[in-house]
Amino acid sequence: MEFSANLGFLFTDLPFPQRITAAARAGFRAVEFHDQAQSSDLRLIAGLLHDEGLKLCSLNCAMGSTAGSAALPGEEARFRAEFLSALEVAEALDARAIHIMTGRTSEAGAEAVLLRNLEFALGCTDRRLLLEVISPAAMPGYWMNSPERFEAVVAALPDPQLRLMGDWYHFSSLCGAAALSRLCGLAPHLGHLQLARAEDRGDPLAEDLPAWLGLRALAMERDLDIGLEYRASLPPAEVLSSLRGRAL
């Protein structure tokens, strides 16, 4: 298990390449991106990851104004282009996983489109593909907005490469006091965890997370990395120290 700095949320006062160095200086041994790398100098990014000894846990397909495109009817060509672009970056940077975003849609054919697009993506790579359940409170209109929708997708497409990105902030919003139990029930499908304070997506200090030891046990049991994707008010090194301290 590694703690991963999400560079879409942390160190955002710096240009994207410099965030990699900042994460290493703060004590992280892994990072994850949104879709910034697709428009960056890949040689530079690869060199920084190598020089700092950082693992790349995951990166996103392009987000755009629709928060992805995988479930958008009529946008199949766009999805394929965006996925192949993300795959090229993942291969160049040796990313463990690619996060596929479904996009915002309420059209009836969205699930069928998503399944076809996922079959295409699975046929292109043996890397882990992640789907994230995102709370409607955080992103209105996002298609993958409940654990039940994720379960329906993996029931229809039971491929072990297809995994859940379990974000504590979103699961807490959706499931309340049952969030940890719900995540544990989905353990066989988990591919990555993300952490933020449940109430406001703030600094996830261990003392503010009653479920922390349960989440840590889940991560250890399933060999999952934990991405810190939160709105920082404290130095990330302080949050990292808090979580590591409670892990001893």
Characterization of the model:
This is Hydroxypyruvate isomerase. Keywords: Isomerase, Pyruvate. GO terms for molecular function: hydroxypyruvate isomerase activity. It comes from Falsigemmobacter intermedius. The active site is at 132 (proton donor/acceptor), 229 (proton donor/acceptor). With 248 residues, the protein is α/β, with parallel strands linked by helices. It has a single domain, classed as TIM Barrel (Alpha-Beta Barrel). Helix content is 40%, strand content 14%. The protein contains 9 helices and 9 strands. The protein has helices spanning 16-25, 42-52, 76-93, 110-122, 147-156, 168-175, 179-185, 212-222, 236-246, and strands at 3-6, 30-32, 55-56, 58-60, 97-99, 128-132, 162-167, 190-195, 226-228. Strands 3-2-1-9-8-7-6-5-4 form a 9-stranded parallel beta sheet. Helix 1 runs parallel beside helix 2, helix 3 (76-93) runs parallel beside helix 4 and helix 6 packs across helix 7. The longest helix has 18 residues, at 76-93. The chain is globular. The two termini are 13 Å apart. The mean pLDDT is 96.
What is the name of the CATH architecture? Alpha-Beta Barrel
CATH class: Alpha Beta
Please list the strands of the largest sheet in the order they lie side by side: 3-2-1-9-8-7-6-5-4
Poorly predicted parts? none
What is the helix fraction of residues, given as a range?
Answer: 25-40%
Q: What count of domains describes the coordinates?
A: 1
Coarse structural class: alpha/beta
Query: What is the terminal separation in angstroms?
Result: 13 Å
Number of helices: 9
Shape: globular
Report Rg.
17 Å
Strand content: 5-15%
Strand segment count: 9
Biggest sheet: strands, sense, closure?
9 strands, parallel
